[in-house]
Amino acid sequence: MINNLNLLLAREGVQISENEIDRGYITQLLTLSIENGRILIATISREIMGKIHGYPQKIHAFQHMPTDVKTLVDPDSHGKGIGRKLFGNFLDKVQYEMPFIKRIELYTREHNDCNLRFYSNLGCINEGRQKDKMLITESQFETPLHMAWFNPNYGTQKGKSKNGSV
After folding, report:
1. Which residue has the higher pLDDT, 6 or 85?
2. What's the predicted TM-score (pTM) here?
3. Which of 39, 78, 80, 116 could covalently link to 33 via disulfide, CB atoms 3.0 to 4.6 Å apart?
């Protein structure tokens, strides 16, 4: 299953290149997500079709927000609601189980109108462009958009359950 996740990460073309994805990267991602944050994986017949992960930074000033949350869906499975369900479930986990998380941050590529609509429809707001933040080649850069979602249950003693009880 780890190899499927590795393949999925490489195929999706996230901010890291395929040669940067190795067992150490996957192990660190899984460990930090399981110990301090959340990771959700969508499978069909034991094949990974998508995943989302995020964990707060260890820096005190930023521990109220997982940064660089990544949602990945196998390109062959786009348009089937997998990403929406993963992201929605992730936000529910944060809202109802992690009231110490104030905001979720992520990036999407500026030219990806589909992703921009997807995240906006899930309640994320566009906080602006970060010109030439992503190095593609020595002379080519991309400008991502910085997106954020705010936890309505931030600061409560316990997150409220979906039925309203505490």
Report:
1. 85
2. 0.79
3. 39
